[in-house]
Amino acid sequence: MTRMVKIKTQTARLSFVVGIVALLVAACETLPSFPGMNNLPPKTETVPRLANPRLANSGVANSGVANSGVAKSGLENPAVGNDKPDPAAVEVARVYPQRPRLQTGLRPALKQYVDPRPPMLPSLEELLGRMPQANTGQSFREPPPVPATRGRRVAILLPLTGANQRIGQALLSAAQMALFEFADHNFELLVHDTHGTSEGAREAVRLAIADGASLVVGPLLASSVRAVSPLAKAAGVPVMAFSSDRTVVGGGVYTMGFFPGDEVRRVVRFARKKGAVRFALLAPRGAYGQTVLQALQTEVEALSGIVTQVQLYAPGETDFSAPVKQLANYDMRRKDLLDQRKILEERNDDFGELALKRLENFQTLGDPPFDALLVADGGKRLVAVAALLPFYDIDPKKVMILGTGQWDEQGLGTEPALLGGWFAAPDPARRQAFSDKYFDAFGIRPHRLATLAYDATALAVVLGAQDRARVYAQNIMMDPTGFTGRDGIFRFGYDGAVERGLAVMQVQRKDAKVIDPAPSAFVN
To answer: What is the DSSP string of 181-213?
Structure first.
C-alpha cells in the first residue's frame, strides 16, 4: 500500500513537471521576436526597385488616394512587380536617406541625378541654398540643411486620365524632377487626378484640402480652375493653375499659363522699334482671336501707332482666300494697276512704253495698307494662310510678318512667306536644357507645357522652406522682383496672372533664333 502511494506520488510529480514544461514551450511560441532574443540576424527592409523611366507615366492607378503607403521609401512603382532590390535604387537610398515624399506610384529614373549642372533657377536657389553637385564616377555631396524648415503639404491636380492624359503625365513627370532637385523630407506633394473634368477637379481639390494641403498646384483647364476656385477660396488655400485664361485669376488664384497678350505686346514693341507704324491682324474668330486683337489695339495705341486692318476667319475654314484678299485690299490695288496700264497705253510714247514694261510683273499697284501683319495662328492653318500672302501681293520683304507663341515650333521655315518672320517666346536655350534633362530621366521629350509644372513645383518647394507662418501669402506670391524658371523670369501681377520675360525669335529654315534676348530682370 505504501509503495502504491509512492508510485502515485511520483507519477503526479512527473505529470506536474511535464505540464510546466508544456506551458513554458507554449509561452515561448507566443512571445514576439525581438533583436537579441535569438541568434538570428534582424530582418532588413528591402529597398524598392527604381521604376523604369519609360513606364513612369503609367504607374498611377488611382492618384486620388491621399496615402499610398510610400512614407518610408519615397516613390515606389507598383507596376514593376519585382521584389529583388535594384543596386541603383540601393545607391539612391544610401546617398539620399531622407527623400521628399510624393504620394503617387512613380519614381523618376536615376539618370536625372547625374547632371553636371545645377537646376537653372538662380533666384530660387538663393532661397534654398547651394544644390548638390554630381560628376560621373564621383559621389554626391548633400546640400546644406535649410534652417527652421516647416513641414509643407502641397497638392497637385492633373488630368492623369481622360482626353488630356498625355499632358497630365508629362506635367507630373516635370513636377517629380523639381521635387527631387529642390525638396527635402519635410515637403510632401499630394497627387490628385482630375480626370480632365470639372467634377473631377472639384472632388480632387476637396480631397486635397481635407488632406491639409496649404497650396494647390494646377489644374490644367480653365473650366477645372473655375470648379476648384470656390472651395479653395473658402478654405483659404491659394491655387497656382496652369491655365492660359486670364478670366480665372483673382482672389488667391494664380496662373502660370502662357498668355497671348504678353506675346503680342513683346513682338509689337520690337516691330515698332524697327519702324512699323501701321499694323494689321489676321486671326481666327473666338476667344483667342479676340484676346490677341485687344492686346494688339492696346499696345499699338500706347506706342502711338495705328491698327489699319483686321480680318477674322472661322476656325474650321479651309479656304482662306477671301480674308487674305480683303486684308490686302487686293481688288482696289489691282484696279489701280489696270487703270494705270490703260493710261500709259493711251500715251503711246516712249515714256509710256517704258513704264508699262516696268509694270509687267506687278500684280497690284501700291503697297498694302500696313507695315506689319500679325498672323495669330499655328500649325497647318498658319502654313495655309501664309502661303496666300504673296499670292495676294503681301510681300514679306516689304511687310513685317509677326506671330504669337503658336509659332514656337520647328519647321515653319519651309514656308517661304514665314521665313524671317518674328514672334515672341521664352528663351529656347533654357527650355532645351530642361528638355535634355527630362529626356535623360524619362526617355522621351517633354510636352511644351511641362516647364509650367516644373517651375510651379520648384516655387512651391522653395517658398515652403522659408521660416514663415504663411509662406504662400499674397505679398509673397506677388513679389515684384519675380522668379527665374525654366522659361525665364516670371512674376504674378496684381490680378494673379503671370507676367513673363520673353525673347523675340526669327524664323529660320530649320529652327528659330533669338534676335532680341529675353530680359534678365523686371524693370518695374
So the answer is: HH--TTEEEEEEE-TTSHHHHHHHHHHHHHTT-
Cis before 396? omega within 30:
no
Query: Listing from the earlier edge strand, what are the strands of the sheet with 483-485?
Result: 483-485, 488-492, 498-500
Spatial distance between the Cα atoms of 92 and 169, rounded to a whole number of angstroms: 23
Question: Rounded distance, CA 297 to CA 308, Å?
Answer: 10
* CA–CA separation, 170 and 173 (whole Å): 5
Rounded alpha-carbon distances, angstroms, from residue 41 to 32, 38, 44, 90, 223: 15, 8, 9, 20, 57
Given a cut of 50, is residue 112 above it in pLDDT?
no
Q: Which residues, listed in sequence order, are joined to residue 253 by a DSSP beta bridge?
A: 239
CA 422 to chain centre: 24
pLDDT score, position 364: 79
pLDDT value at residue 320: 94
**Cell numbers describing residue 180:** 527631387
- Given a cut of 80, whether residue 94 has pLDDT beyond it is no
Which residues, 6 or more positions from 500, have their beta carbon under 8 angstroms from its beta carbon?
258, 259, 262, 426, 487, 488, 489, 490
The pLDDT confidence band at residue 524, using thresholds 50, 70 and 90, is confident
Q: What is the mean pLDDT of residues 82-110?
A: 41
Query: Sign (positive/negative) of CA torsion 332, 334, 337, 339?
Result: negative
191 phi/psi in degrees, rounded to 5: -100, 130
Q: What domains does the chain contain, in order, with CATH numbers?
A: 62-76+85-137+150-257+446-497 (3.40.50.2300), 260-329+368-417 (3.40.50.2300)
Q: Cα separations (Å) of 407 from 286, 374, 383, 507?
A: 18, 11, 10, 9
| More confident of the two residues 281 and 71 | 281
The CA-atom distances, in angstroms, between 36 and each of 25, 28, 33, 46, 251 are 19, 15, 9, 21, 60
Percentage above 90 pLDDT, the chain? 59
- Residue 263 confidence (pLDDT): 96
Q: Which residue has the higher pLDDT, 386 or 16?
A: 386
Among candidates 429, 458, 435, 456, which has minimal Cα distance to 122? Answer: 458
Q: Rounded CA gap, 476 and 24, in Å?
A: 67
pLDDT for 336 beyond 60:
yes
Note the pLDDT tens digit of each residue in 296-306: 999 999 999 99
HSE-up of 115 (CA within 13 Å, CB side)? 23
pLDDT for the residue numbered 52: 35
Q: Is the pLDDT of residue 67 over 80?
A: no
Q: Pick from 310, 309, 334, 313: which is nearest to 322 by CA?
A: 313
Distances (CA, A) of 263 to 266, 407, 523: 5, 11, 17
Give CA–CA dist 324/393, Å, rounded. 10
Distance, CA of 500 to CA of 444 (rounded, Å): 27
What does each C-alpha distance from 381 to 2, 32, 123, 235 come to in angstroms? 118, 73, 39, 44
